UniProtKB/TrEMBL annotation:
Pfam family, any one: Molybdop_Fe4S4
Keyword annotations: Iron, Iron-sulfur, Metal-binding
Source organism of the structure: Sinimarinibacterium thermocellulolyticum
InterPro entries according to UniProt: Asp_de-COase-like_dom_sf (IPR009010), MoPterin_dinucl-bd_dom (IPR006657), Mopterin_OxRdtase (IPR006656), Mopterin_OxRdtase_4Fe-4S_dom (IPR006963), Prok_Mopterin_Oxidored (IPR050612)
UniProt family annotation: Belongs to the prokaryotic molybdopterin-containing oxidoreductase family.
Name of this chain's protein: Molybdopterin-dependent oxidoreductase
Length: 730
């Protein structure tokens, strides 16, 4: 008899409540949990088909060791012993920094996995940690650190009471709300606010599904959002639409005013290609609305001056009094002092990178630097890498270059559900536990919600027989290598001691589990206990929503918002004094990307069976005017050419994008391998990120130009599919 079990979806940050029917230990159906007090209306096809990942025939269910060109199953004991021996040899000979790790986006959803990877790296120790934020939210981390004193001080959005939304480079209609600016059922609530009279201003070079619902769509030139935002700030100073009360909580107003007054609106208008009248109109609508907020996300953040856009977007909110007010941006302190915890437990590294000498952002180096760090000889060269739930050969810049670098490592260990493109050269494949097989309470996730809500993720089915959780593999590796977890030898002793006691008494509950840390954190937070959360399978609204927590959470020494941090101001001045570069004649078009409801970055593109997918995988959207000028018609085979690569694609002539811009989806072109070597590699479409160089970065956030990449389109005869093992021509 089927039984319904409740948990939430860990695929994207919406964390939709799930009602999972389970029969004889197998997932039969996944539905939204309609009794969920927080979020179930965003429930989508990715959540509905989550079990296809669990039961996929290519899922890795045992450690696999590379032997010549094949993989052979091995026990955990063999895997841990071999990996520990090899890592130890590297560590003794070259030092801890020769060992690196990359964590992908799904790691943000597992407190225990992320904690134990971090604990392992701290124990080595190594500063060579790489994270998906360097192709995502780094601009926010840089700005939050400079303005608010902590890279993790992120503000949520308060959608219901908002009367003017200004969305820059985000498409919540398809992406839902990411962890920054997160709101449960957010897009639907925004549409409801709009129906009640709210203004919805969307700034996007493409008429995205979000933009198509806008009261005003501003089709900006990619990469120039900073100029548009500076224009708004200029007008707000000029018209004196400032919110004086909140300005007392800031420093740097004078410097900011000087910067904003010194610009010419005409020049800014030319840069972003938005008429002066529109800039003035948006400034008026935003500044004079009874409530409002501005959100800047990946569209602007993954471009050349994404950090400046992020900064000016935050400034816009502050100077118009949108912080901690209904309809504005608010801080959720969560169930625990998560910012203090991150700072203490993960103590972010400040060691600059070896080759390019760049400082880490929020404790992690930029993915764009990884190939150089592996390939450049000398002390500190990376020789071993743990790839934890990530696929950077597809999701990061210049995949072919990273692929080549990964092939040169002495040891590559992947912890993942599958063997994908980034794990092609792995010496060991370690299985992962899917979120539907994990019971864990993520104490930090609660602070990303827009209301005081917390839920325990529940294992609704067991993992495949013998598969150990990611954290346990990492902890056992540390014990075997005598690497003190978190740099604390007593931590290892505590794990060993508790396990010995459990064995002796036959009581498994006495053996250490990461839940011990979570319980402790909840107790220190003093808002909810583990048992209270456990007693609410649909999740718990633990208090009423309040406004104002942000002011107490500020981490700057003077407890004020720094409106005009010197590093950001200096970069802005540099931009202002550089004339708008005309598009290079060889590469006159700007490439941007997009997401689709069915996919999650580069995963789910290949494991869940949606028939339309191959049709979408290698399509490049071209504005009609550009297509006409090139003589390209719908469906024509074309080549997309950048400074570093050339990729085949099919043209889709479109009236939705501004001329000069082309759109190519990311996430495709990743191989799905069968480690047993019995099946051929599944690979659909092309990896458009092969067009993006790892050399050209936003100087502040170190994010590569995933958006606004200079390209050209050539007509071609026959389209062929390129992949990293067959690098495209340079
Ligand atoms: N052009 C372009 N590129 C982009 C973006 C863009 O907008 N445009 N977006 C960027 C963004 S925002 C992000 S976050 C990055 C993502 O970059 P990554 O996180 O590196 O890439 P993903 O494609 O999300 O790969 C996730 C991997 O995690 C595995 N996985 C899934 N669940 C689990 C689990 O529970 N445990 C373990 N161990 N593994 C698991 C999957 O099988 C997959 O191999 O991509 C970035 N790349
Ligand atoms: N279905 C689905 N949902 C997802 C994901 C997914 O892969 N699939 N990924 C999740 C993750 S990891 C994240 S980080 C979030 C990201 O969530 P969002 O930040 O909302 O990401 P996108 O949906 O890619 O929207 C970015 C928009 O920016 C526009 N854009 C591109 N370049 C520029 C520019 O220079 N300026 C401006 N103003 N706009 C520009 C694009 O046209 C696009 O419409 O989504 C999450 N949700
Ligand atoms: S993937 Fe879909 S179902 Fe899962 S949390 Fe995101 S929006 Fe909800
Ligand atoms: Mo992301």
């Amino acid at each position: 008899m089927a039984e319904t079990r409740f948990t939430f979806c860990h695929i994207c940050e919406q964390c939709c409540g799930l009602a999972v029917s389970v029969d004889h230990g197998r997932v039969i159906e996944i539905q939204p949990d309609r009794a969920h007090p927080y979020n179930w209306r965003d429930f989508c096809v990715k959540g509905a088909r989550a079990a296809e990942t669990i039961y996929h025939p290519l899922r890795i269910k045992t450690p696999m060791r590379k032997v010549d060109d094949r993989y052979e199953p091995a026990t955990y004991e063999e895997a841990i012993s071999d990996i520990a021996t090899r890592l130890q040899r590297i560590r003794e000979r070259y030092g801890g920094d020769a060992i690196a790790a990359y964590s992908g986006n799904p790691q943000s959803f597992s407190f225990e996995s992320a904690t134990f990877l971090s604990g392992f790296l701290k124990g080595l120790p190594t500063h060579n940690y790489y994270f998906a934020a360097s192709v995502d939210t780094n601009a926010l981390h840089v700005v939050a650190e400079q303005m608010y004193g902590s890279p993790w001080l992120a503000l949520n959005v308060d959608v219901d009471a908002c009367r003017c939304f200004l969305l820059i480079g985000t498409n919540p209609a398809e992406s839902a709300h990411g962890w920054v600016g997160h709101a449960a059922d957010g897009w639907k609530r925004m549409l409801a606010a709009k129906a009640a009279g709210a203004d919805l201003i969307v700034v996007d070079p493409r008429r995205s599904p979000t933009a198509s619902k806008a009261t005003l769509h501003v089709a900006i030139r990619p990469g120039e959002d900073w100029a548009f935002l500076l224009g708004l700030i200029h007008v707000i100073f000029r018209e004196d639409w400032l919110h004086t009360e909140d300005l007392a909580r800031t420093t740097g107003l004078h410097a900011l005013r000087g910067l904003a007054a010194g610009v010419r609106l005409n020049a800014l208008s030319q840069r972003c290609d938005v008429p002066v009248s529109t800039i003035e109109e948006v400034a008026r609508r935003f500044a004079t609305a009874p409530s409002a907020h501005c959100v800047t996300r990946t569209g602007s953040g993954q471009s050349r001056n994404g950090t400046l856009a992020e900064w000016l977007g935050q400034v816009l909110n502050v100077i118009t009094g949108r912080i901690e007010r209904p309809g504005g941006r608010t801080f959720n302190p969560g169930v625990f002092d998560h910012i203090g915890a991150v700072e203490r437990m993960f103590r972010p590294s400040t060691t600059p990178s070896r080759v390019r000498g760049l400082p880490p952002v929020a404790g992690a180096h930029s993915l764009a630097e990884l190939p150089d760090e592996i390939e450049t000889p000398g002390p500190g060269q990376i020789r071993a890498l743990i790839m934890h739930g990530g696929n950077p050969v597809i999701s990061g810049p210049d995949g072919p270059r990273l692929d080549r670098a990964l092939s040169k490592l002495d040891l590559l260990v992947s912890i993942d559900l599958f063997q994908r493109e980034s794990h092609r050269h792995a010496h060991w494949l370690i299985p992962a536990v899917h979120f539907l097989e994990r019971t864990e309470l993520h104490p930090l996730l609660a602070s990303f919600h827009d209301r005081p809500f917390v839920q325990m993720g529940r294992a609704v089915v067991d993992p495949p027989s013998g598969v150990r959780p990611d954290w346990q593999f990492l902890a056992e590796l540390a014990l075997e290598m005598r690497v003190p977890l978190f740099g604390k030898p007593w931590f290892n002793a505590m794990i060993r001691g508790s396990r010995a006691l459990a064995r002796l008494t036959g009581r498994d509950a006495l053996a250490f589990k990461p839940a011990w840390l979570t319980r402790l954190m909840l107790r220190m937070g003093g808002k909810v206990t583990w048992s209270e959360v456990a007693a609410h399978p649909h999740g718990l609204m633990y208090e009423d929503k309040r406004y104002g927590a942000f002011w107490g959470a500020l981490r700057t020494a003077d407890r004020k918002i720094h409106l005009c941090p010197p590093r950001l101001a200096e970069e802005l001045r540099k931009c202002l004094s550089t004339p708008l570069c005309r598009a290079p004649t060889q590469f006159p078009l700007q490439l941007i990307s997009r997401r689709r409801l069915q996919n999650m970055n580069s995963w789910l593109t290949d494991t869940t069976g949606l028939d339309a997918r191959p049709l979408l995988a290698d399509v490049v959207e071209i504005a009609r005017a550009d297509a006409d000028a090139l003589g390209v018609a719908d469906g024509d085979a074309v080549q997309v050419v950048s400074r570093i690569a050339r990729l085949p694609a099919k043209a889709l002539v479109s009236d939705r994008i501004r001329p000069g811009v082309v759109v190519f989806e990311h996430g495709w072109g990743s191989g799905l391998f069968d480690p047993s070597g019995q099946r051929t590699v599944l690979r659909t479409g092309v990896n458009r990120n092969a067009l993006v160089s790892g050399d050209e970065l936003d100087p502040l956030s170190q994010v590569p130009l995933l958006n606004g990449t200079p390209v050209r389109i050539e007509r071609s005869g026959k389209a062929t599919v390129a992949h990293p093992s067959n690098p495209p021509q340079r």
